């Protein structure tokens, strides 16, 4: 009894002393970008067109203020400057992506563009020299247009195209890369690209194309993971996973079955669809049953959702070394009782709204909801067998202020709930990544929504970069391990 009481006293003392509000020394901090959003040099040194180059050049009005990413932050010509900026933050790692059409202008490995490879080699070596780990995303949306012309993600060939590209990258860079990510946010590629057609390649096919794309994309992911596992892991000693973007789905009425089911359906259709096959095997139950039922009603012979064979389920299940999650915001779920045209919005049977009372960022969809991250982390732990979780993106958009106190507050609140989720639920989060290193091309929002820790002047041909207050804050957090930037 006495020793138990003594233990309790010690525990109470330790947790009451503020020690629990600190990140442990093995917790890693990073900062992220992606190739298309920062590099520019869209046709320099033999790079070919990506689906984003084509989309913007053909539909300039689809981008805010008709901006393009032809130059973006001009990072293709600013390796040293980028590294200096990263170094000044004191981060453990830099998450960036490789441009597939820069390395393989023909999409396939029969021709490797040496100049493109050199750019990434210089970047990776430079990081290494400064003790910054490279966390490398193979695909952050910029598919070579030449592969899109042959069907893109609606062609089964994408599995071979992607896994060949992945193997080449492991070979070229793997000695200096410890963390690989196959696909960033498959939802944006499949649902937005081949379903709702909001993003390139802009091919409408909701309820069919988006599922088919997801089916092939996950198979491509799994092949890349197996290639790494079999041919490179032993020698290169790295790890590899996929990144899924999640919003937290909170039932608008928490006390009501229809609303809790709406929230479950929402999170499964919007995120579980991409995570479940990898972490548990097969599609989420609710997705399978809803699409099968609706397909039947529509007179289809089989479900519009491709069915995994037993072999495929086994091949895809377990192809992860950590759970990569991008989190920005939450939504409120309510059931949809009105039939909609065929498509994912009808399939999922729910709507999402956001409370007008939630504070917003510059991006319309981004509301500040750190409580949602806390719930999400517990959900991921409970749903996916307590994986090691890496937050691969989290960030706040404004209009580019240098005194960006709202960004500081956003990061602080999210870091605090990560500590709470660790202490209260035992969630294993091992790393946190701020999106983004610098203001950059925010897709169809152009340059109006700024996520950077550094400001970029896009009217200056030199793309002058200026440090923001949030960068200094983040630097202090990393140094002190405390979200407040200092510990009592
Ligand atoms: C819109 O684009 C034009 C031309 O590139 C530029 O001069 C202008 O500053 C942009 N407007 C805003 C509000 O950024
Ligand atoms: C790329 O493909 C095109 C046609 O498919 C071919 O003409 C060209 O030679 C290829 N480029 C290289 C460098 O192999
Ligand atoms: C849940 O619903 C019941 C009635 O259905 C109600 O009595 C109760 O107050 C509700 N609880 C909350 C927390 O809203
Ligand atoms: C978190 O996961 C990593 C990797 O599986 C493991 O080494 C570590 O012990 C885990 N930490 C906790 C606190 O569970």
UniProtKB/TrEMBL annotation:
<dbReference type="InterPro" id="IPR001360">
    <property type="entry name" value="Glyco_hydro_1"/>
</dbReference>
<feature type="signal peptide">
    <location>
        <begin position="1"/>
        <end position="19"/>
    </location>
</feature>
<keyword id="KW-0378">Hydrolase</keyword>
<dbReference type="Pfam" id="PF00232">
    <property type="entry name" value="Glyco_hydro_1"/>
</dbReference>
<dbReference type="GO" id="GO:0008422">
    <property type="term" value="F:beta-glucosidase activity"/>
</dbReference>
<keyword id="KW-0326">Glycosidase</keyword>
<protein>
    <recommendedName>
        <fullName>Myrosinase 1-like</fullName>
    </recommendedName>
</protein>
<dbReference type="GO" id="GO:0005975">
    <property type="term" value="P:carbohydrate metabolic process"/>
</dbReference>
<comment type="similarity">
    <text>Belongs to the glycosyl hydrolase 1 family.</text>
</comment>
<dbReference type="InterPro" id="IPR033132">
    <property type="entry name" value="GH_1_N_CS"/>
</dbReference>
<keyword id="KW-0732">Signal</keyword>
<dbReference type="InterPro" id="IPR017853">
    <property type="entry name" value="GH"/>
</dbReference>
<comment type="subunit">
    <text>Homodimer.</text>
</comment>
<keyword id="KW-0325">Glycoprotein</keyword>
